[in-house]
Specification:
This protein is mostly beta strands. Helices cover 13% and strands 40% of the residues. It contains one helix and seven strands, in the order αβββββββ. The protein has one helix spanning 3-15, and strands spanning 17-26, 36-39, 44-47, 53-59, 63-67, 74-77, 87-91. Strands 3-2-5-6 form a four-stranded antiparallel beta sheet, with no helix packed on it. A hairpin with a 4-residue loop joins β2 and β3 (44-47). The model is unreliable at 3-14 (pLDDT under 50).
Amino acid sequence: MTCAALAVFAVVATQASFPVTGRVLDATGLPLPGVLIGVKGDKVIAVTNDDGSFAAQVPHGATLLFALPGFLPREVPIGRQMPASQMVITLAVAGVS
């Protein structure tokens, strides 16, 4: 592949996704570290840190999956535009109504 072709590929790849940031909390508002965040039908793209925060590059139109043992998984459609503000995702404890 030539340098020009690589440059074009890099521009196209950059335009196909956008940055998403946020925090994952439990139902009481406490941060959840270690939550796996993936693109539905693809791979894990991020893991929350100690304060429940994450940052990832997300494909346009993707649905994000949030999963942590002991909690119900959650799917969040992202849409085609970058979110205007930081996402806040709440996970419910599994087996609790």
